[in-house]
Amino acid sequence: MSHLVSIQTEVRDPAAIRAACDRLHLPEPVFGQTKLYSSTATGWAVRLPDWRYPIVCDVSTAQIAFDNFGGRWGEQVQLDRFFQGYAVERTKIEARKKGHSVTEQPLEDGSVKLTIQVGGAV
Amino acid sequence: MNKTIEIIVAPNGQTRVETQGFVGSECRDASRFIEQALGQQTDELLKAEFHQTVSNQQQIRQGE
After folding, report:
1. pLDDT in the model for residue B49
2. Is the CB of residue A98 less than 8 Å away from at least one CB of chain B?
3. Mean pLDDT computed over A16-25
4. Could you say which of A54, A56, A75, B9 has the lowest number of CB atoms within 10 Å?
């Protein structure tokens, strides 16, 4: 028997945040208190391309704080790319921790396919 | 058959995890670590591939 599971990605791992930034050629994430337009947030601040304010990832709650003024101060697609990069890197990190080999393949629709060989050495 | 876990990460970061080549509930145990690491499960579909194959063979025989 096999199964298929859909998952809503949650950002909870600083190592994967760092790896996602590296993958997307973004500045390194910085931990601390960050000022947004009218508020402040504490967590890992990530600077997305052409966004006026950083996004702030609170890994203890998986909440992402940001203010892009409904898209006028930063495109949603950049945030989506960060989520995708995070999910890819988190998967690779966790697979390698278990000693599994993992391969990555880009798909035509912009998705990324990862295949983990269970029991295969890295 | 090789045991694999396939993960499709959509452009918006949503993921789909699919196991292949496992026997019984072994598949759930094998992929649990990756599902827990990625976030909240929103949907699950069990694929009884073995039984489906038997059923297809029976249908072919009945049609003969």
Report:
1. 55
2. yes
3. 98
4. A75
Please give the Cα distance from A52 to A32 (Å, whole number): 18
pLDDT band at B48 (very low <50, low <70, confident <90, very high): low
Query: Residue holding tokens 């990756």?
Result: B34
HEC letters along chain B: CCCEEEEEECCCCCEEEEEECCCCCHHHHHHHHHHHHHEEEEEEEEECHHHHHHHHHHHHHHHC
Position A18 pLDDT exceeds 50: yes
**Partner residue facing B4 (CB), from A5, A87, A116:** A116
ipTM: 0.92
Q: Are B51 and A23 in contact (CB under 8 A)?
A: no
Beta-carbon separation of B7 and A116 below 8 A? yes
A43's torsion region: left (phi>0), alpha (psi -120 to 50) or beta? Answer: left
Tell whether the model's pLDDT for residue B11 goes beyond 70. Answer: yes
Which of 32-61 (B) contact A at CB < 8 A? 33-35, 37-50
Burial, B56: exposed, middle or buried (Cβ in 10 Å; 0-12, 13-18, 19+)? exposed
Q: Are residues A2 and B47, on separate chains, in Cβ contact within 8 Å?
A: yes
What are the structure tokens assigned to A36, written together? 């947004």
The answer to whether residue A84 neighbours chain B at the CB level (below 8 Å) is: yes
